[in-house]
Amino acid sequence: MxxxxxxxxxxxLAVRKWRDAVTAIAREPEPFLRGWISDTIYGRFHMVALxxxxxxxxxxxxxxxxxxxxxxxxxxxxxxxxxxxxxHGVGDSSIARRIRKMGEEFYGLAAAVDEALxxxxxxxxxxxxxxxxxxxxSENALQLATxxxxxxxxxxxxxxxxxxxxxxxx
Length: 170
Known about the structure:
Largest sheet: none
Number of domains: 1
Radius of gyration: 16 Å
Order of helices and strands: HHHHHHH
Number of helices: 7
Helix content: over 70%
Strand content: under 5%
Distance between the termini: 37 Å
Number of strands: 0
C-alpha cells in the first residue's frame, strides 16, 4: 500500500536514447519514398507516433518504472514537436492549440494501434487503423501496416534489461 507513494526516478539518458532511437526509425526513408506516408510535417509526426507507440508498449512490461519512462518519453517527444512547429513558423498564439490537437491525435492513434496489434496481423486490424487515420489508400495502408509490424519486431528484440536503460541501437 505504501508503495503508491514511492517516487520513481527516470534516467534522463535512457529517455534521450529512446527518443533518438524512435526518431531515427521514424525518419527511415522507405515509407516516405514508397508513398505509404506523406513526407510532410504531419506525415513525419504520424511515423513518430507509430514508432513511439511500439516503444511505449515495451515500457509497460516494466511496471511503475516503465510508466515513469513512458511519461518522461512522451514529454520529451512533445517538447520536440513544439520546437519543430516553432521552427516551421507556427506562432506562439496557436502553438498550444496545435500541440493539444497533436496530443489528442497521438494518444488516439496509439490506443487504436495498440488494440490492433493485440488483435492480429496487418490485414485484419492494423491496416484499417492506418487507413482510417493516416493513409486512406487501402493498398498503401496495408503496406505501411506490414512495415509497422516489422518495426514492432525490431522494438521487441531490444533486450528487457535495456528497456529502462535505453537502447544503444535498434
